[in-house]
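Bug #77: duplicate submission created two jobs. Keeping one. Sequence:
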Amino acid sequence: MQRAHAQFLERASWLLRLPLETPTIPFQDEATGCTLWLKLDHLLPSGCTKDRMATCIVAHAIASGEVSPTTVVVEASSGSTSIALGMVCATLGLRFRAYMPMTVSGERVLMIRRLGGEVVLTPAELGMAGALDALAADTDTAEDLYAARQFENPRNVFAHRHTTGPELIRQVGVRLHGFVAGVGTGGTLMGVAHALRDAGYDTVVARAMPTATYLQGGDPEVVGGVPGVVDGMSRLLDPAAVGLQQHVDVPEREALATAREFGRRGLGVGPSSGLNIAAARRLAARLGPGHHVATVLPDRMERYFSTALFDDVAAEL
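Kept job's structure:
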């Protein structure tokens, strides 16, 4: 038993040392006259930047004794965090359970189940709040559960402050005038912003905000939205701590169109990446020609086949 536990701790230690570095590429944006620096986190093992957070949270929970070989790791998520946690837990031989609203795409549910995870689907009309409530109910009554709590766990910000941010700064190699990212948990935006401040940069840091467009009758146009970008859920977002500036609004239709555009350029990314690139363009236009603006491409396209991202294409069967 002691030997098995020691091997478990060794695997966790190895997990924490695992390099999760991704490249950053420049894109010369002719419309703004600026260079956009795109960090390709969609190339991480599970296809999402959430791998950084999931690895950090689970490895440190094991090191602190909060997670043992018998613990069930649990999380409420719209998909990407649960996929990343499912991958990490499968690597360690841990059980994992995701709580997700029924509105999530089937691809994400299948990916979690293929990784050996359990999925609890909550009522669609309750959204993420319903998934969080279901998670809370189980953690209050069941034993030997560990809730990752992505929306409030400081390890989320820590992971990006000490990996994503420093990598980006080193890879770009020039002064960054702007950085922008959407907020689901807030971990990426806050972590990279802290890294920029740690390095002495006065970079303009802003939040990318997806916005709905409205029809003539006043109803919002339904275009599919940007999954995972949840307004008001983050307890990690602290504008004053890093000097966040005015957020950058991006119509949802523009976010999806940008994701499709960059797919045609060879980057198979999802809606969150489209949002971030579109916001980087808008921030670049705000700053003016000659500036360097960076963002992160957080997700790959494969988990969105059944969503509005692919409404403009068809597969001949």
